[in-house]
Amino acid sequence: MEWLFGFLVLMALVGYFQKNAGNGKKMADKTRIPPAWAERKERPQEAAPARQSTSAVMLQNGDAMYHLETARRAERQGDFLATRMGYLKCMETLRQARDEAGTQEAQKEYDAFVQRDPFFKELVSSLLPIIQANPGILQSDITKRVESVDWSALYNSNRPVAKEDIYYALYFADKFGQIVRTKKGRSYELRVSG
Predict the structure, then answer these.
(1) CB of 86 closer than 8 Å to CB of 67
(2) Strands 179-184, 137-138: parallel, antiparallel or unpaired by DSSP?
(3) Which domains, from first to last, does the chain contain?
């Protein structure tokens, strides 16, 4: 029965991406990231919205500042996966340095980016119906049939959806109040908010 649920989750994600694969362009494997992200260079570039500068706080940590600037540059270029990785590395660098003020400032900017991230929006819109149909489902049950990838592969826009992508979507969906994640054993129990 467990394998059937995992299969249904995977098929729901595949079905969503097939439906939204975009503009008649074919993809070899419909479980790959949709062409809207993979072919971002074909789209006209939009300027990223203005952000509050965190430079004053972050100049104390050169590595974190480097990752923050990398994320900002990637977003200006329309590379949302590299933007996410830049913010993630910035946050991790600040946490390891125990820079609480820098972490808080960078987190605000990261949160604002996530709300603009089309990849986040697509994943959440495909995960919410699954969670709504199965209140109390464990996060591990959703990710069970999805492969994990190493960090360098997360930059590749022509890859299957990975566990890390789903963790990203579920973490921020909880943070933004779309779902509720409650710790249960080694996983999280998921419910739609409201």
Answers:
(1) yes
(2) unpaired
(3) 2-31+118-192 (1.10.10), 60-116 (no CATH)
DSSP string over 129-156:
HHHHHSTTEEHHHHHTTS----GGGGG-
Positions of E strands within the chain: 137-138, 179-184, 187-192
What global pTM score does this model have? 0.68
Closest CA to 51 of 119, 115, 124: 115
Q: Which uninterrupted H or E stretch holds 157?
A: none
Report the Cα 170 to chain-centroid distance in Å. 8
CB count, 10 Å around CB of 28? 6
Q: Please write the tens of the pLDDT for every residue from 141-165.
A: 998 877 776 767 666 667 788 889 9
Tens-place pLDDT, residues 109-139:
999 999 999 999 999 999 999 999 999 999 9
